[in-house]
Amino acid sequence: MAPPRILVVGAGFAGVECVRRLERRLAPGEAQITLVTPFSYQLYLPLLPQVASGVLTPQSVAVSLRRSRRHRTRIVPGGAIGVDTRAKVCVIRKITDEIVNEPYDYIVLAAGSVTRTFDIPGLLDNARGMKTLAEAAYVRDHVIAQLDLADASHDEAERASRLQFVVVGGGYAGTETAACLQRLTTSAVKHYPRLDARLIKWHLIDIAPKLMPELGDKLGQAALEVLRKRNIEVSLGVSIAKAGPEEVTFTDGRVLPCRTLIWTAGVAASPLIATLDAETVRGRLAVTPQLNLPGADGVFSLGDAAAVPDLAKGDGAVCPPTAQHAMRQGRVLADNLIASLRHQPLRDYVHKDLGLVVDLGGKDAVSKPLGIELRGLPAQAVARGYHWSALRTNVAKTRVMTNWMLNAVAGDDFVRTGFQSRKPATLRDFEYTDVYLTPEQIKEHTAATVIKH
After folding, report:
1. What is the DSSP-derived secondary structure letter of residue 45?
2. Cα 42 vs. chain centroid, distance in angstroms?
3. For position 391, what pLDDT does the model report?
4. What pLDDT score does 220 carry?
5. Quick check: 355 and 324 in contact, CB under 8 A?
6. What Cα–Cα distance (Å) separates residue 384 from each residue in 357, 362, 415?
């Protein structure tokens, strides 16, 4: 009799932590593990703003999935674009665009999230995100290119539009992105004698009335003061009404000449979740505290893709989409999946939030570990210490620490690699949000597999 087939979709914090625990705790031959992911690395997402600003190299935050000596997981290079829970088949689009069906006995949906967008004219064509490694590399090249082009231009209007930068989203990703990239342009402009540093302007806008409200009023205000001290214009209660290739219109009526719009206004569950025809909570799959999907045999979900009840808070709360929860959910889910295989009882996921860290670059940071409010160098030490300890391998830790030390000693570099320099990239190009199947298309693809079984 063939061993049960476990299919894990997604190689983020949740998926990788689940696979690692399954590899360690399953006996040889007890189950077959397959992981579906476009890239054979785990991306340490919280450090992407530092990749965009050049403090860290892209390789340092991309942790290889093939370094483990216990590796016995089959990796399918592609992305899941549909799931038929009745037929127990997952439809996968490989990186070659070949579409294949992958049967399973147990499936773990750790598909993560994508950048949340709205029906704003021009947004999808003219904004860039900060959700993938390619986006971070592209944004860095794009920002430095604007300085190069402004320096070479004799047109004052063109210069003005190239030296205005807009970041939308006052959460952690947006705030860190604006702070880190502003430091990059401030350092870089010293090497552009034809540019007036006063013309470079960064704007951070958010529709919410407060910056990073999860940190509390005091730390949120402290972060706001740091940004404004750096001449980053922060506008709250404001969003984008229209995005063009050379200008951005705000909802308060302002029209800003701008060729760089970075969109970090929240995340939404992967579109894969919508293909299941199951109950959702704000787009995230509604699961039990044991991380399984009610009424669907062998289906588990976690991380950003799932609305996991937050039993530590109670009152119907769900766990926020953070790495902290995703990693711990991965361990619990693996244990529960093994318990299902062995016909043992499952346990609930319960975890009390340990706090939040926000790295604003240089000596600036705000952190709230275990409810203790910190700012400045102590907060920076906590933020970087937390990120460093969370990296999965010693190789990754060494690379990140070396990058930090090199940047502290040698300063920033302003090399533009030319990544997609002649082809403007869109949010769809990086996150592939338009490749998913409808329920009808999924049934067509899985019909042949069902007949064979």
Report:
1. G
2. 11
3. 92
4. 92
5. no
6. 9, 11, 25
Residue 189 near residue 147 (C-beta atoms within 8 A): yes
Structure tokens at 50: 């530092």
Confidence bin at 354 (pLDDT 50/70/90): confident
- Start-to-end CA span in the chain (Å): 15
Decide if 172 contacts 213 (C-beta within 8 A): no
Q: Which of 233, 232, 259 is nearest to 158 (CA)?
A: 259
CB neighbour list of residue 5: distance below 8 Å, 6 or more residues apart: 31, 32, 34, 103, 104, 105, 106
Residue 380 to residue 390: CA distance in whole angstroms: 15
Residue 261 to residue 164: CA distance in whole angstroms: 9
Largest CA distance in the chain: 74
Which residues, in sequence order, are bridge partners of residue 368?
356
Which two structure tokens, joined as six digits, stand for 76? 């399918």
Sole residue written with tokens 């598909």? 111
Give strand ranges (E) for 173-266: 201-206, 232-236, 240-243, 247-250, 255-257, 260-263
Q: What is the mean pLDDT of the chain?
A: 92
pLDDT of 73 above 60: yes
> Which tens digits make up the pLDDT trace of 401-435?
999 999 999 888 888 887 666 667 777 778 888 78
Is 145:153 a contact under the CB 8 Å cutoff?
Answer: no
Taken in order 338, 393, 54, 221, the sign of the CA dihedral is: positive
**Band of pLDDT at residue 450, cut at 50, 70 and 90:** low
Mean pLDDT of 103-108: 97
Burial class (CB in 10 A: 0-12, 13-18, 19+), 368: buried
Q: Which residues of 191-208 are buried (b: 16+ CB within 10 A; e: fewer)?
A: ebeebeeeebbbbbbbbe
Q: Which amino acid is at 15?
A: G
What Å distances lie between residue 170 and 77, 132, 173, CA to CA? 34, 19, 8
What one-character DSSP code corresponds to residue 318?
B
Among the listed residues 261, 203, 52, the one whose alpha carbon sits nearest the alpha carbon of residue 141 = 52
Give the bridge partners for 321, in sequence order: none
Helices within 26-80 (DSSP H only): 48-52
